[in-house]
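About this split. The held-out portion is used to measure sequence recovery: a designer receives only the structure tokens and must propose an amino acid at every position. Recovery is the fraction of positions where the proposal matches the reference. Here is one held-out target exactly as it appears in the evaluation file.
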């Protein structure tokens, strides 16, 4: 019985690939693992191999054209005389596929769509293209103030904007794929804490502190790194990278039944000892539940916890 050979996915960003080469002719016998065809994207070439012993009955996609991932590429059978099943019109992709803007990529993920599902009105697939498609095929009412409706996300601390580079745009797409499609994983990396413990012990003795300041000192180092490397202290809004003017350190802390996100404002302007004192004071205020609005908002970079 004839068995379909489907067009494989080379990577997660490409819904179409180019059918570039065949290694066998119709009716030729192959073994499992033999190369039978080749497809390519802008970045990679992939060899399609036979998944079983048999005969390649033929290919049904036009050689040299863009074809959809998952479409039937060809057919295999148990004998060279088997007929290729009748199929609907060949599904080939456009010669040029409009790359989605960042807003469009986010909306595609939100609506569970692929870039090949939506027709682009211009050279690139826009957020409005996706919204128009969603309104027509799967009406969804966006909540008021949805971030895609405005380039300026509300409530951002002071900062300035920078256009994303091509590399950064690619990174955003990768992160979106990981967020929506990848299987979450947890990795533990062993490292020696001896240097931190030694430095913390000396710091504690020098200032006669009651508590070990190692976590506060590690947080201080993070703040300094963020100040020295502005791309660590930024976010993405619309098509731009938004650099915060200062570093506001955030961390979570549980007090009773409440979980707080505490914020140490302008942490990058503090010297090491002042930083440690301010952080400890903020923790004490959080434990007592005595926190003003200025202590729980405006975080620009964070650590997961101030507890061991």
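Reference sequence for scoring:
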């Amino acid at each position: 019985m004839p068995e379909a050979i489907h067009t494989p996915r080379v990577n997660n960003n490409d819904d179409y690939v180019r059918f570039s080469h065949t290694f066998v002719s119709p009716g030729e016998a192959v073994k499992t693992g033999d190369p039978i065809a080749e497809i390519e994207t802008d970045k990679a070439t992939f060899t399609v191999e036979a998944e079983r012993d048999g005969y390649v009955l033929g290919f049904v996609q036009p050689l040299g054209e863009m074809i959809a991932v998952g479409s039937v590429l060809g057919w295999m059978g148990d004998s060279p005389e088997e007929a290729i099943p009748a199929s609907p019109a060949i599904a080939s992709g456009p010669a040029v596929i409009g790359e989605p803007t960042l807003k469009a990529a986010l909306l595609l993920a939100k609506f569970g769509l692929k870039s090949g599902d939506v027709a682009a009105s211009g050279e690139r697939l826009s957020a409005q293209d996706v919204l128009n498609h969603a309104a027509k095929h799967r009406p969804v009412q966006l909540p008021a103030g949805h971030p895609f409706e405005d380039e300026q996300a509300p409530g951002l601390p002071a900062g300035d904007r920078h256009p994303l580079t091509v590399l950064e745009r690619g990174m955003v797409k990768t992160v979106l794929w990981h967020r929506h499609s990848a299987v979450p994983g947890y990795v533990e990396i062993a490292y020696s804490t001896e240097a931190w413990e030694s430095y913390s012990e000396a710091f504690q003795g020098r200032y006669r502190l009651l508590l070990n300041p190692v976590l506060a000192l590690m947080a201080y180092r993070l703040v300094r790194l963020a100040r020295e490397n502005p791309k660590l202290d930024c976010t993405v809004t619309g098509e731009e990278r938004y650099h915060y003017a200062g570093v506001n350190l955030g961390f979570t802390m549980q007090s009773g039944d409440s979980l707080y996100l505490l914020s140490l404002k302008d942490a990058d302007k503090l010297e090491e000892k002042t930083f440690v004192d301010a952080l400890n004071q903020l923790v004490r205020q959080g434990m007592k539940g005595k926190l003003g609005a200025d202590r729980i908002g405006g975080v620009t970079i964070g650590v997961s916890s101030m507890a061991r």
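Annotator remark: Residues 272-288 form the longest helix (17 residues).
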